[in-house]
Specification:
Number of domains: 2
CATH class of the largest domain: Alpha Beta
Shape: globular
Strand order of the largest sheet: 3-2-1-4-5-6-7-8
Structural class: alpha/beta
CATH topology of the largest domain: Rossmann fold
Helix content: 40-55%
Largest sheet: 8 strands, mixed
Order of helices and strands: EHEHEHEHEHEEHEHHHHHHH
Number of helices: 13
Oligomer: single chain
Distance between the termini: 65 Å
CATH superfamily of the largest domain: NAD(P)-binding Rossmann-like Domain
Strand content: 5-15%
Radius of gyration: 21 Å
Number of strands: 8
Length: about 290
């Protein structure tokens, strides 16, 4: 692969976390110049960006000055702040918000960056961080979406343009995660209730006999525990999406609380034991009923 043209407008990755760095690496492998800003970032982020081949522009302002496209992929609670920071710098390229936020939040972000002169494209990511043998889907909507999709042609990022306005890509993401992450929180809560009532072992045996997929999903909460802190705001954004559609929002506000209780596992070296996760979900001081014999 030839080195990117240093004079061509770059793609700026505004938050090279696990997903952002992987998407940036795909753009880099497609021959694009990809930049990021190290100012204020920690060692882990610097190392991750370095492994992905992202060029360090130093400051956010310098990264935006070099970029024709700025891609925001960050924890959803930070999406608005990122947009405001970009607007403050007067960025006039294409700003892509690919965060897990409600359609109305997306529209607010669009208004913020467009008022400062940028073009806005709505995005939503479904799947794991892309890489060799691992594909993910980047849904895009609004005018300008096709040009962004073309940046990732031939890479593990499958960019899909939706026939819809700003909010369509985010709406799809919200609906998808409402089930995947929402159901994981629900099943984890059910196991905690079963433990509280002393029937967890019996419930597990019943699931094993009649709902083996559900049993596997309940075991999967161990892997989710370390990332649960990221999903609190995502569940709240999903709740807002439901409310805006005139539907009850309590399902995912409860899921947000489930993930909030798993925050002690943030940054843990490995997945915690399932029994520990179940205990973490129950407030201190709640009695446990003697298990059935």
């Amino acid at each position: 692969m030839a080195d990117p043209d240093p004079t061509a407008p770059a793609v700026a990755i505004l938050h090279p976390g696990e997903m952002g760095a992987a998407v940036g690496a795909c753009a880099r492998d497609a021959g694009l110049r990809v930049v990021w800003a190290s100012a204020g970032r920690g060692r882990a982020t610097r190392e991750r960006a370095g492994r992905a081949g992202l060029a360090d522009a130093g400051t956010l302002g310098d990264a935006l000055d070099a970029a024709g496209v700025a891609l925001s992929i960050c924890p959803p609670h930070g999406a608005l702040d990122v947009a405001k920071a970009v607007a403050t710098h007067g960025f006039r390229g294409t700003f892509v918000d690919a965060n897990a936020v409600a359609p109305e939040t997306t529209r607010e972000i669009g208004r913020i960056v467009e008022a400062a002169g940028a073009r806005f494209v709505d995005g939503g990511i479904v799947g794991p961080p892309p890489g060799p043998g691992v594909r993910t889907r980047l849904y895009l909507s609004a005018p300008g979406a096709r040009a962004v999709a073309d940046l990732f042609a031939g890479t593990p990022v499958e960019a899909i343009v939706l026939d819809g306005p700003v909010g369509a890509a985010s709406g799809l993401k919200m609906c998808y995660a409402a089930w995947t992450k929402g159901s994981t929180a629900l099943v984890a809560a059910i196991r905690a209730v079963a433990a509280s009532e002393g029937v967890e072992a019996a419930l597990v045996e019943e699931w094993r006999a009649s709902q083996p997929d559900l049993l596997a999903r309940s075991e999967g909460v161990r892997a989710s525990a370390r990332k649960g802190w990221r999903w609190v705001a995502e569940m709240e954004e999903i709740a807002a999406t439901f409310a805006a559609a005139g539907l009850p929002d309590g399902f995912h506000r409860a899921a947000a609380e489930i993930y909030r209780r798993l925050e002690p596992y943030r940054g843990a070296a490995g997945p915690p034991a399932l029994d520990d996760v179940v205990r973490a979900l129950r407030p201190p001081g709640r009695p446990t009923i003697i298990k059935m014999q």
